[in-house]
């Protein structure tokens, strides 16, 4: 053990039932542990869920983190409600991870990204599983919203969706190249600037052409949002599904809103619900949505900090902030500016 690790405080204790109580606590703990070299013990994992404990996609996050950091781990098994994780040394390189279900590939990617960014060499990841999951950022969101936001911080990541994977089959694949983070920029997104364009994109994979799902979704979105452009794009893969997203581009920020087709919901219902999310955003002054707000906190805490506005602060985001402050010496403040407008400050 090197001197820096020997001088580290004792293992960080985390109660997995606190705050939002889901898999996010685990993923954030893994990211922060690998970055700081601090071991943690997590108890009551996903205690608030119908099926508590580690599920397959959480286990892949643990195993992937273990592999890139040569960690000593206890409790890494299905349905385990306790995990001990002690990282040794994060190693950049080429890695392949298979979730073996429709579990989210993007959440595994977001768990590993912070630690790999901080290495001197680039890393390449290939992750197989679900790419368009209802409870995770879709591959579209990561590629067209999350990564462009990180680019403002000086973070360079190449992202490619090789195969789409929808629930329940999955079998999708994402390929990522993460460059070493050389130039760290402070983020200031307090004003989104004027609206530039609203564009809609829809894809259907292995579903009946006769149903004209994509055409109907685009027609509904156009009626509700007065689109600048609308586009049907193609996906490869063996699963079945439908994804739609609307890209709202302002002068200083591009925000994405996503929707997935559901059984027993018409194309019109899916598109109307998506249009509603976009309209609510356009009516507010906030720059980022609640999901991106959550995902920006850790990169900002690792870099030069920054500030941005969001429409609301979710339980997820508050839990995320509390976790980051446990491991890293930084200050995250939420200031209510208006009924639907919050400013988030990350000071490092």
How many whole angstroms does the radius of gyration measure? 20 Å
CATH class type of the largest domain? Alpha Beta
CATH topology of the largest domain: UDP-n-acetylglucosamine1-carboxyvinyl-transferase, Chain
Beta-strand portion reads 25-35%
Overall pLDDT metric:
93
- Strand order of the biggest β-sheet: 1-2-4-3
List the helices and strands in order: HEHEHEEEHEHEEEEHEEEHHEHEE
Could you state the CATH homologous superfamily of the largest domain? RNA 3'-terminal phosphate cyclase domain
Describe the sheet with the most strands.
4 strands, mixed
**Could you tell me the number of beta strands?**
16
Instruction: Indicate the percent of residues in helices.
Output: 25-40%
Account of the 3D structure:
The protein has helices at residues 3-6, 23-36, 56-69, 105-117, 139-151, 213-225, 267-283, 290-302, 315-327, and strands spanning 12-15, 40-43, 72-74, 83-86, 94-98, 123-129, 157-163, 172-178, 187-189, 195-205, 229-232, 241-250, 254-260, 306-310, 331-338, 341-347. With 348 residues, it is α/β, with parallel strands linked by helices. The protein has four domains: 1-89, RNA 3'-terminal phosphate cyclase domain (UDP-n-acetylglucosamine1-carboxyvinyl-transferase, Chain); 92-183, Alpha-beta prism (UDP-n-acetylglucosamine1-carboxyvinyl-transferase, Chain), CATH 3.65.10.20; 195-283, Dihydrodipicolinate Reductase, domain 2 (2-Layer Sandwich), CATH 3.30.360.20; 285-348. It has a four-stranded mixed β-sheet, covered by helices on one side. A four-stranded mixed β-sheet has the order 5-6-8-7, with helices on one face. A hairpin with a 2-residue loop joins strand 15 (331-338) and strand 16 (341-347). Helix 2 packs parallel to helix 9 (315-327), helix 3 (56-69) packs parallel to helix 4 and helix 8 runs parallel beside helix 9 (315-327). The protein is globular and about 60 Å long. It starts with a helix and ends with a strand. Residues 1-7 have low confidence and may be disordered.
């Amino acid at each position: 053990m090197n001197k820096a690790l020997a001088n580290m405080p004792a293992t960080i204790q985390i109660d997995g039932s606190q705050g939002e109580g889901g898999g996010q606590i685990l993923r954030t703990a893994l990211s922060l542990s690998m970055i700081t070299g601090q071991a943690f013990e997590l108890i009551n994992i996903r205690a608030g869920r119908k099926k508590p404990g580690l599920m397959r996609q959480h286990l892949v996050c643990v195993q992937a983190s273990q592999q890139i950091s040569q960690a000593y781990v206890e409790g890494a098994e299905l349905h385990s409600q306790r995990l001990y994780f002690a990282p040794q040394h994060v190693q950049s390189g080429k890695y392949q991870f298979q979730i073996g279900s429709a579990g989210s590939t993007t959440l595994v990617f977001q768990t590993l990204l912070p630690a790999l960014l901080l290495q001197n060499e680039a890393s390449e990841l290939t992750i197989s599983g679900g790419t368009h999951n209802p409870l995770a950022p879709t591959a579209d969101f990561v590629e067209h919203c999350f990564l462009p936001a990180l680019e403002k911080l000086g973070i360079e990541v190449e992202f490619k969706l090789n195969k789409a994977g929808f629930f329940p089959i999955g079998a999708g694949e994402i390929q990522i190249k993460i460059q070493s983070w050389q130039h760290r920029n402070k983020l200031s997104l307090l004003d989104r600037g004027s609206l530039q364009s609203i564009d809609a994109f829809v894809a259907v994979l292995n579903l009946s052409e006769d149903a004209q799902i994509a055409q109907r979704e685009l027609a509904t979105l156009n009626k509700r949002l007065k689109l600048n452009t609308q586009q049907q794009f193609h996906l490869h893969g063996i699963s079945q599904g439908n994804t739609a997203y609307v890209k709202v581009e302002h002068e200083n920020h591009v925000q994405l809103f996503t929707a997935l087709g559901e059984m027993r919901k018409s194309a019109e219902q899916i598109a109307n619900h998506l249009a509603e999310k976009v309209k609510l955003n356009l009516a507010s002054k906030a720059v980022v949505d609640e999901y991106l707000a959550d995902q920006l906190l850790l990169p900002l805490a690792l870099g030069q900090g920054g500030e941005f506005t969001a429409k609301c602060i979710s339980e997820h985001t508050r839990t995320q902030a509390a976790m980051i402050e446990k491991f890293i010496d930084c200050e995250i403040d939420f200031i209510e500016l208006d009924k639907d407008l919050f400013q988030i400050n990350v000071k490092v």
